[in-house]
Every structure is written in C-alpha cells, then in structure tokens.
Design a protein that fits this description.
alpha+beta, 7-stranded antiparallel sheet
C-alpha cells in the first residue's frame, strides 16, 4: 500500500512538473468580439472568423465545405472559451492593484486633483496592459506563452505595481502634506486621520496578485491541455485549408 501511494505521488509530481514547463504559446494576437474573431500580426488583421462559420484570409472569403465549417466552429468556440479566461486573470490582477492605489485618493484633494492622479496612474500602467485588453465583450491577447503570462504576474506586474504605489502615491501624499502644512489649521485634522501606509498598500496588492498567480498555477495543466487541443484542431484546419498554414496561431515553443 505504501508503495502504491509513493507511485501515485510521483505521478502527480510529474504531472505538475510537465504543466509548469508547458511551452504552448499563441504566436499571433487574438481579438475576440461577439460576432467575430480576428487573428492579428503587427496590428493588422490577417484572418477573420465571422459568426463562427465564415472564414476570411487576407480579406478574401474562403469557400468552405460542411466538414470545414464543423471544424471552424469547434476552433472558434474553443478560442471564445479560452482566450477571455486568460485575459481576465491578467486584467483582474492589474485592476486589483490599480483599484487599491486609486482608493487612496478618495477624500484627498479636490475632484480635479483626484482625476489628475487617477489619469497619471492609468497612463503609467497603459503599456503593461497592451498585452491584455478586456472591454465589455471584447478581449485581446497579444502573442505570448503560458510561461510568459506567469512571468508577467510574478516578475513584471508585482514589482511595477509596488514601485507605482511607493513612488506615485508617496509623492502625491508628500505634496499634499506640504500644501496643507503651509495652508491653515486644517492640516492638523487631515494629518491626524488614519492614513493607510504605502507599505500596507503594497502588501495588499501583493496578496491579490499572489492569489491570481495561484489561480493561474492551479489551471496551468488544464490551460496547457486546452492549447494542445486547440493546436490539434488548427492542424486539421490547415490540412484542409493550406492558406491557414501561414498563420499558425497556437504553437509549441522550442
């Protein structure tokens, strides 16, 4: 019995290891909209699927057989389920950090100052979010692998949000306190309020990002499997429609 459990643990370990080392990647940008899917290269649409059953390649409508349509619908539905889930994990992580930072502005300064500070924060994070966009029912995912998404949450986003919290918020508070200190007795009342420390704010942001990273890690094996299944469907489409071979969306990275 002990040997059985040992073998079971080894199998689980190997399964988790292979999931963590998954090198499946999206080689092109993908835009998901309610009525179409676009495959992008250098910000230009090269492949478009309309209503899960019409295929355009470089603007040309491709004639499809009934079997082609069945494969295209499966491919389209799989992309619609998978891409928004990946995008949402990344966007939720960023939004969680931004909302924590922006919450610090509530009740501080005038409305115009608050709007200016929020705009500053959004401008700072715009470049981070060019790889993941979620607007209503539209989702965009830039070319990247699952490992790169994991690194985004751990290696890029966390230190950048930490820096934004410590420097941007710290600078705003410092400027505000200086202004109050040289104004009137309102400073006494404002300065004695329970200001949340930047360190506590950073801890709160990190906890939220860690939760998103754990969510990604827990789903990594499933995500890798889904991408492999997508790749198989894509290969079947490419065999039937050779023009699609120039736009290998899902691939195994070397």
């Amino acid at each position: 019995m002990k040997r059985y459990y040992f073998l079971l643990l080894m199998l689980c370990h190997c399964s988790l290891l292979s999931a963590a080392e998954c090198e499946m990647a999206f080689a092109h940008g993908i835009l998901i909209a309610p009525d179409h899917i676009r495959i992008l290269q250098n910000n230009r649409t090269h492949v478009q699927i309309n209503n899960d059953q019409q295929l355009f390649i470089r603007g040309e409508l491709i004639s499809l057989t009934a079997e082609d349509v069945v494969l295209l619908q499966q491919y389209s539905r799989d992309l619609r389920k998978f891409v928004p889930e990946i995008v949402s994990i990344a966007v939720d992580g960023v939004e969680l950090g931004l909302s924590s930072i922006e919450a610090m502005f509530t009740g501080i300064g005038s409305k115009s100052q608050q709007a200016e500070w929020r705009e500053l924060v959004r401008e700072t994070t715009f470049q981070w979010m060019s790889r993941f966009v979620r607007t209503n029912e539209h989702f965009y995912l830039a070319p990247q692998s699952l490992n790169e998404l994991d690194y985004f949450l751990h290696g890029e986003l966390k230190p950048q949000l930490d820096s934004l919290a410590r420097h941007t918020v710290g600078a705003v508070w410092g400027a505000l306190r200086d202004a109050l200190r040289h104004s009137d007795s309102n400073f006494e009342r404002s300065d004695n309020q329970e200001w949340q420390s930047v360190g506590h704010l950073v801890d709160k942001i990190n906890l939220g990002l860690d939760a998103k990273a754990v969510e990604l890690e827990e789903k990594s094996a499933l995500f890798c499997q889904r991408m492999q299944e997508l790749d198989e469907v894509e290969q079947q489409l490419q065999q039937r429609l050779p023009a699609l071979k120039d736009y290998d969306v899902v691939m195994q990275k070397d």
